[in-house]
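Before going further, learn to read the protein records used in this course. The integers have meaning only within a learned vocabulary of local backbone shapes. The record below shows the convention in full.
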Amino acid sequence: MEASLPLFLVAVALGAYAQSVTGFALGIFVLSAVVLLEISSIAATATALNIMSVALGCVVVLPRLRNADWWVIRMTLVGLMPAMVVGVIALRYLSAYAEAVLRLLLGLLIVGGGLVLIWRPKPRKEMSSAFNFISIGVVGGVLGGLFSVPAPPLVYQLYRQPLSIEAIRVSLIALFAALGIGRLVVVGLEGNISFEVVRLGVLSIPVVMFFGWLGGRLPPKVSDTSMRRFVFIILVLTGGFIIFTAFPL
């Protein structure tokens, strides 16, 4: 663990910077590093990610509260929070009995995140219905409960709306922070916040906050399309490898 910790924190830095610019990627980068480097369990890292998401939300969302779309956030949370509890229960079962299935799902989620990032849907002329946001929240909540990564369905949903890019990014990070708080409460009530979880989370907080702030102040001097393509390639290659490791040779 100690030898791999610097690489883990590099993944945290890259994920925090990318999330502050694109609206998501922190969880995907961190979980990818954990699986590839075998630093910790998926379950422990998912909970540590909640701590990171809350820290990033403080840096990115609090100074931009007016930029978030609070109706979108409220409607999505109606479906997100209850489904998150289901995801946490499923994670407990899969961690104990089906590690290969857990890795396969994570690999597919990472590849899906890459596809969502590169495939920019055409915005709708009108906002989607409340039911639509609640339904997408349910899907994101299950993924958030499993891996603390509800991003792919939520990112696709919000990028389809007639909202500014700033509103989309801030709203997404606010949703991830809210999920992080809720998931920490659920996992804490189960008694599953271990020393390892706290250690990973606390060590990551200054990295997340600094690189989240840096992404807001100094976005990359490349086109949005170029950055999306670069991150897409990384995620698809990483997700493909994790899927490969899910099948015993």
